[in-house]
């Protein structure tokens, strides 16, 4: 008979695998929608057969969900966020206070927010599934699956 820890660990692993597939789909949709595709490297990282790695560290019950993709895909988003947080320059202050517009039109940057919005936006969904998803029916299904492995 599997222990409660084994049942809970199997449940968490399964839910993280489902969540990884969900996030992969969100990433693909966001990258395509924002047209962040230059060399297909970033997009192919999520369309491959195993875009994420869900694993347990030893038998401690601690699980890891990680995605592997080219760093430049994430760096584009980080750089875009840094530009948004820039301080008010003297030219901007003059424009704001006196209504004097600058000669050059400000170039609006590309919305590259594909990772952060999806990862943090989907956390509540994962938390809800982990908190309320281990029902009696799910527990019985996991027990039968673990018995088959043994």
What does this structure look like?
The chain has 150 residues and is mainly alpha-helical. It has a domain of 103 residues. The protein is 60% helix and 7% strand. The protein has 7 helices and 2 strands; from the N terminus they run H-H-E-E-H-H-H-H-H. Strands 1-2 form a two-stranded antiparallel ribbon. Helix 1 runs antiparallel to helix 2. The N and C termini lie close together (9 Å). The mean pLDDT is 80.
Outline: elongated
Spell out the helices and strands N to C. Answer: HHEEHHHHH
Protein structure class: mainly alpha
Spatial extent as radius of gyration: 22 Å
Q: State the strand order across the main sheet.
A: 1-2
Question: Helical proportion?
Answer: 55-70%
Ends apart, CA distance between termini: 9 Å
What is the count of helical runs? 7
Reported for the largest beta sheet, the result is: 2 strands, antiparallel
| Strands, total number | 2
Mean pLDDT: 80
Point out poorly predicted stretches. none
- Share in β-strands: 5-15%
Give the key terms.
elongated; mainly alpha; 2 strands; 7 helices; 150 residues
How are the elements arranged and paired?
Blueprint: H1 4-33, H2 41-47, E1 52-56, E2 63-67, H3 71-84, H4 90-98, H5 116-121, H6 123-132, H7 136-149
Antiparallel strand pairs: 1-2
Helix pairs in contact: 1-2, 1-7
């Amino acid at each position: 008979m599997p222990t409660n820890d084994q049942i809970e660990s199997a449940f968490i692993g399964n839910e993280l695998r489902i969540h990884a597939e969900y996030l992969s789909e969100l990433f693909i949709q966001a990258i395509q929608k924002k047209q962040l595709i230059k060399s297909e490297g970033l997009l192919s990282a999520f369309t491959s057969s195993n875009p994420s790695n869900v694993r347990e560290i030893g038998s401690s019950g601690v699980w890891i969900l990680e995605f592997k993709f080219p760093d430049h895909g994430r760096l584009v988003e980080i750089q875009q966020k840094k530009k948004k947080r820039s301080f008010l320059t003297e030219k901007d202050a003059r424009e704001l206070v006196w209504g004097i517009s600058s000669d050059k039109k400000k170039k609006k940057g590309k919305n590259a927010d594909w990772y952060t919005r999806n990862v943090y936006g989907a956390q509540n969904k994962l938390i809800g599934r982990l908190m309320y998803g281990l029902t009696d029916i799910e527990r019985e299904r996991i027990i039968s699956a673990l018995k088959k492995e043994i």
